[in-house]
Write a structure and sequence with these properties.
mainly alpha
Length: about 200
């Protein structure tokens, strides 16, 4: 069984250039965005800004430039994060995580600082954690809670995907980055890291 280990994940990413670390985080955001879209359709929130912001990140990854003010764009995304106390919907945490993760990606693109990379890397795990607890009706005080969450198929699938993504990125050499191919790996998904929310 695979387990989430932030230090190990950072160590695996450290051998990659910052641009490819950002690609890895962008892929995570793509897998989180369907949760926000599903939630926003139910509650009438704007989903276009997050999709547009993630597209701007992909544009920059294809052709880095100084033309995008990532701080303003990140703030717009973070402002779209729903307040958990305002909704009884169990997906509110996942929607919040998606908005904050995209904000973290944008802030990472501005300075390539490890703090925002760490924030982004942990949010997908948090989303799956909360969703699995709700989905399976788990006791949040149970002594084996973490083991049950870690072994759940949704968490194991995400950890497997992350390992495969890192392996894929490790095969890229120099500046030979085909962002169209890279983006297409997880771009604009209907079903994200929480599985099919319509079922």
């Amino acid at each position: 069984m695979m387990n989430f280990d932030l230090e190990e994940l950072h160590a695996e990413l450290e051998v990659l250039p910052h641009r490819l670390r950002a690609v890895f985080l962008a892929w995570m955001c793509e897998r989180m965005l369907p949760s926000y879209i599903f939630f926003s359709k139910k509650h009438g929130l704007d989903q276009a800004i997050l999709r547009g912001a993630l597209d701007r990140a992909w544009e920059w990854l294809a052709t880095p430039s100084d033309d995008i003010d990532f701080s303003i764009l990140a703030r717009r995304c973070e402002d779209l994060a729903p307040e958990t106390e305002d909704y009884e919907d169990p997906l509110v945490s996942a929607a919040l995580d998606a908005a904050v993760a995209i904000g973290a990606l944008l802030r990472y693109l501005k300075r390539f600082d490890e703090e925002h990379l760490s924030i982004g890397l942990t949010l997908i795990r948090d989303s799956i954690d909360m969703h699995v607890q709700e989905l399976e009706g788990m006791d949040s005080l149970g002594s084996d809670l973490e083991d049950k969450i870690a072994s759940h198929p949704l968490m194991q699938e995400e950890l497997k995907v992350e390992k495969e993504d890192i392996s894929y990125l490790n095969r890229i050499r120099g500046d030979d980055v085909n962002v169209i191919e890279i983006k297409g790996r997880w771009y604009n998904l209907e079903v994200g890291c929480l599985g099919d929310l319509n079922s």
